[in-house]
Input
Amino acid sequence: MNKVKINGVEHPIDADPNMPLLWVLRDLLNMTGTKFGCGKGLCGACTIHLNGLPVRSCLMPLAAAFGAEITTIEGLSANGDHPLQQAWIAHKVPQCGYCQSGQLMSAAALLKNNPTPSDAEIKDAMSGNICRCGTYPRIEAAIKSVAGVQIHQPATKSKGAI
Amino acid sequence: MSLHILILAAGEGRRFGDAVKQLAMIGDKTMLEHAVHQASILAPARVSVVLGFRHEQLALLVRRAQVVINPNWNQGIGSSIACGVAALPASASAVLIMLCDQAALSSFDLARLTSRYEQLKSNDIPPIVCASYADGLGVPAIFPNHYFNQLKELNGDMGAKHMLQENSVISVPMATAAIDIDTQDQWARFNEHKLSTALINPRRIRTPEGESL
Ligand code: FES
Ligand code: FES
Output
């Protein structure tokens, strides 16, 4: 049986290799932190990391995950205390919250690959994540607060989970 | 370090007649938007499109991807590849090159290429991973960054195909990669065969029996 590594844990999965990962996560593994928005790759609600890079899991086949490392919102941090998650709380980012796990996953991938993004780079990386409630200004502020920490206090950079 | 996707959409598509090929509808999107969309599912914020012919008009359709204008687009595909690769950020560890008119390609196909590449990228010298179909090897193809200089030197009408022959490559069978739309006839046939419906819902596209994923 095929195995898929999600948040560091190997899961044996018996499903059509063409099944979208989002279905695997939500319906087979009952990991419902990742949300279904459009199912067409348009909204970003289903964003997860495939080998550290953001992808839309609604249109990503299970087969793409064989041999890869998947991270979902459940695995972003052990105790829900990723610096971005803390910033999200501090900035009271969510309104209804539906889009936010996708927002966090996009933001986390951005900062991991580019710890000090410019405003334009933040806008760019986040442009595929749609928020019906319009929380964009708070999302940006929260990301900048974390990116800022890294710019001004390089000493904290090495131990950061970002 | 990450993989970027480069979509080549600079050509005039002369065989398509008077209409602008990049604007032909595939399902509910123009061919150009369709290609960008499939790529951004896999690589949000890491997609670039090379435009040339009618770029002022076409650039307006490109969202969530970087537009690279090739002023020498009429010299041929090699010049567009060189131009696109030169514009990649320094953090690009590899580039997946695909054609805008490979209208049957879905994010599922691209994911099969990238997942194969992921398995091989930690090799001492990561190989090229490309599609194979009846005609042999071709794009979409992933080139690790040690090939970037060679790609930047391409010019004129000569694409990257010879690089697939000259190097040892890993290929992934991909029937959908064989379909590229050159003429209005092919476009009509493509839509007629309801391939475009399958594209709106790629879950309906099945991998051929025995194909390794
Ligand atoms: S549910 Fe995947 S992008 Fe909207
Ligand atoms: S918080 Fe409601 S959709 Fe974003």
Summary: Residues A 94-100, 131-133, 135 surround FE2/S2 (inorganic) cluster (ligand 2) (CB under 6 Å). The longest strand of chain A covers residues 2-6.
